[in-house]
């Protein structure tokens, strides 16, 4: 395997004979020339096969080869500025591992197919260059997210997937039998990582979360991945600084390592190059006034009601006023979760922040300073009609050495959609789970 390489690193082998293992993505012929395109999971590359330059058996094998047949290809790497990757391979030999039968051709052809068909064949659709590129970017976003916290003194901690109660007291829960009790798939690891933050100082969790939202919007999945940091002795201003530096790190890491993939996806990278901290910061009141002014000028169709949360059209308008994420802070406490600390200067407001991505991608981060008073938290639980007994352990965190602490959550899929410039979150995860889809 010493001379085995990948398409992603093929530029370092110019002029050398290398071996690739992968699949035939596409093939076109022009007289006595074949132009196969191979993929290996790291990218695609075009091969050149003149009939006179290879044994007849190799030429005929390639000429009749079906798409997605698995192969081992040997050839010499040659620079070519016309090629998408800047390189081509002069094919010398092809060994077929498994040939796709003529009777059952690969169903995902190069021509456009409907969304339902593609999702029904998602296990095959992810082989196409654009979908593979999205998944590679996703992997780097996840790696960069963990890297940021690991290098800044955070300890990763793993909250449970099965929980006895809702984190935010909503009804959007997947309920299941747990022996003689009821359990729920987690909506967030937040309550649990609050406890580990008070043990370890700075922590984060990274895992799947579940919300039984009967929503068909382009922003919603029923199963998605969330990264959630939590920091002891941290108040809202420090949390906002953490969030903007975190997002900047992720975007710049993707730009550094995935220019080719972003080109395949069709992303305008100039819209990502501006994503550097600090981000603009506005209060809920300022955001509401922005919407009020826009409505008066006829720029938006519906008037926002003061005191309500922002809907998707509201978030889109607000974020479109900026070339980078905007941080909206201090929402009305009445529309936020029970665990958010009220603002001492105006107790009707919560010390919280939502980070809205530009280009209409909406909220990608939601966070807050947490209530640190036992009496206040207990009252908030009762005010939200939540079962007090289910939160006794959570109240313990305020009985024994409570401190100001803060955290946020970022949904990976929304971040991927924004960074890749995708129309729908269904393409951001290998196998999307939505209101109407649990197959394959």
Automatic annotation (TrEMBL):
GO annotation terms (biological process): asparaginyl-tRNA aminoacylation
Enzymatic reactions: tRNA(Asn) + L-asparagine + ATP = L-asparaginyl-tRNA(Asn) + AMP + diphosphate + H(+)
PROSITE patterns in the record: AA_TRNA_LIGASE_II
Compartments reported by the entry: Cytoplasm
Key words of the record: Aminoacyl-tRNA synthetase, ATP-binding, Cytoplasm, Ligase, Nucleotide-binding, Protein biosynthesis
Keyword Ligase listed: yes
A GO term for molecular function: asparagine-tRNA ligase activity
CDD domains per record: AsxRS_core
EC number of this enzyme: 6.1.1.22
Domain Aminoacyl-transfer RNA synthetases class-II family profile: 135-430
UniProt-listed InterPro entries: Aa-tRNA-synt_II (IPR004364), aa-tRNA-synth_II (IPR006195), aa-tRNA-synth_II/BPL/LPL (IPR045864), Asn-tRNA-ligase (IPR004522), Asp/Asn-tRNA-synth_IIb (IPR002312), NA-bd_OB-fold (IPR012340), NA-bd_OB_tRNA (IPR004365)
Predominant localisation class: cytoplasm
This protein's record includes keyword Cytoplasm: yes
Any Gene Ontology CC annotation: cytoplasm
Complex formation: Homodimer.
Protein family according to the UniProt entry: Belongs to the class-II aminoacyl-tRNA synthetase family.
Name of the protein this chain belongs to: Asparagine--tRNA ligase
Species assigned in the record: Granulicella pectinivorans
């Amino acid at each position: 395997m010493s001379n085995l390489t990948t398409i992603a690193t093929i530029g370092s082998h110019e002029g050398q004979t290398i071996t690739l293992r992968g699949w035939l993505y596409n093939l076109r012929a022009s007289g006595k020339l074949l132009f196969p395109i191979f993929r290996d999971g790291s990218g695609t590359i075009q091969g050149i096969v003149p009939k006179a330059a290879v044994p007849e058996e190799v030429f005929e094998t390639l000429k009749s080869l079906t798409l997605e047949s698995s192969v081992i290809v040997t050839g010499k790497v040659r620079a070519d500025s016309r090629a998408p990757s800047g390189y081509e391979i002069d094919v010398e030999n092809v060994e077929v591992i498994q040939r796709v039968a003529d009777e059952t051709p690969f169903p995902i052809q190069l021509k456009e197919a409907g969304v339902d068909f593609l999702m029904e064949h998602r296990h095959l659709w992810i082989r196409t260059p654009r979908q593979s590129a999205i998944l590679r970017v996703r992997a780097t976003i996840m790696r960069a997210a963990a890297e940021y916290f690991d290098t800044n003194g955070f300890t990763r901690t793993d909250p449970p997937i099965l929980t006895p109660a809702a984190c935010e007291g909503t009804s959007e829960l997947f309920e299941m039998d747990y022996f003689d009790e009821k359990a729920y798939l987690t909506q967030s690891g937040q309550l649990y990582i609050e406890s580990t933050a008070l043990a370890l100082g700075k922590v984060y969790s990274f895992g799947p979360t579940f919300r039984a939202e009967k929503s068909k919007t382009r922003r919603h999945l029923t199963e998605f991945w969330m990264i959630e940091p939590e920091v002891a002795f941290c108040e809202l201003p420090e949390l906002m600084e953490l969030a903007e530096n975190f997002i900047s790190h992720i975007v710049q890491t993707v730009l550094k390592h995935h220019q080719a993939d972003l080109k395949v996806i069709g992303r305008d990278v100039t819209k990502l190059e501006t994503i550097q901290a600090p981000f603009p910061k506005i209060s809920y009141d300022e955001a509401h006034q922005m919407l009020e002014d826009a409505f008066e000028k006829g720029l938006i169709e519906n008037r926002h009601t003061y005191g309500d949360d922002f809907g998707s059209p509201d978030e889109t308008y607000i974020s479109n006023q900026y070339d980078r994420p905007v941080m909206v802070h201090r929402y009305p406490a009445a529309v936020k979760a029970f665990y958010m600390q009220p603002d001492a200067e105006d107790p009707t407001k919560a010390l919280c922040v939502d980070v809205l991505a530009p280009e209409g991608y909406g909220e990608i981060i939601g966070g807050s300073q947490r209530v640190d008073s036992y009496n206040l938290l207990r009252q908030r639980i009762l005010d939200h009609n939540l079962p007090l007994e289910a939160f006794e352990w959570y109240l313990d965190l305020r009985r024994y050495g409570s401190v100001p602490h803060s955290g946020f959550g970022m949904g990976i899929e929304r971040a991927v959609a924004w960074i890749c410039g995708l129309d729908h979150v269904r393409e951001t995860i290998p196998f999307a789970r939505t209101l109407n889809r649990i197959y394959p």
